[in-house]
Fold:
Amino acid sequence: MSAAAVTSAPSVEARELGPVLPLRAFPLVGVVLAGLVVAIAGDWPWALTFYHVVGGAMWTSIDLFVGFVVGPILRTMPVPARVEFTKRFMPMMLVLMPTLVTMTLGAGFQLARQSGHLSTSDPRHAWVVASMCVVGVMAVVALALLSPANLAVLFELRKPQPDPLVIGALMRRFVYAAAITGAMQVATFVIMTRLAS
Amino acid sequence: MNDRFPPVTQLGAASMAFVAAGVIVVAAYLPKHAPLAAPIACLAVAASLLGVNLVLIARARGFALWRFLQVMRWGLLAYAVVAGMLEYTFLYDHTRGAVLAIMTCMLVLFMVNVPLLLAFTVARYERS
Structure:
């Protein structure tokens, strides 16, 4: 690539803007993840079920709430209000959602091992594979569309004059991606209730 | 808005989808060994798509490469930690041979694809 084709770092980057992510939340995330590791290492059914159910319930609820409640409300708000909301909302989401997903999937895989559903000879094995497929689709949507939009919004908001059009486009992508994963969660409800009954 | 850049996000998402498909095929046969033709095919397609993406990014004009590399560097660090932990679990669970090789290659693709998509999305909206 030619040097002229690459834009140079603007001088405003030298400004002190503080961290992109809410660092205060990190100790709490650390405690939650350490608890998950202990639960998996100890193979404790109650702790694993707690992590799986609580993580899954919060993950699903937040996806559905953001996709189908916050999104439509956000579209009707004036641009400055959207920017202010986004400034406070997105850093939290960038920390909260990966933590909930890790809780749910980590504990869920261990529960599947414990219950024997992972084994190909288990009569409910097909439902576990179906849940892997649903999680695979959600992971691709979340990692390829949702998280990058989330991070890009945070970078845009740190500029001296954030572009409302860019923020609007990225927030739309974020909310649509959350709605898709929320809708996919309905398939997860069916699979999980089949496995548990 | 900003549509002059190549379809890096779409190709990255497709590459991730092939990685996910390959992992699901292997995981679906646990604790037995899965037939490896399908995972190898998924791996090859995913790696090719990642290669195309890297070429497209390197050739993109007017692209904030400095921002891309800044985010990519930190993203790679974070996802290298994640991938390292996952690799440890494979070894801990006595995964060996061809399955381990395929899963490790899938992990490497995952480890590069996610930061690449994060970095590209941030950098494409960077103004000079």
Remarks:
- Chain A touches chain B at residues 1, 5-10, 118-120, 125, 129, 132-133, 136-137, 139-140, 143-145, 147-149, 151-152, 155-156, 159, 163, 165-166, 169-170 (CB under 8 Å).
- The CA atoms of residues 2 and 12 of chain A lie 24 Å apart.
- Confidence is low (pLDDT under 50) at residues 1-15 of chain A.
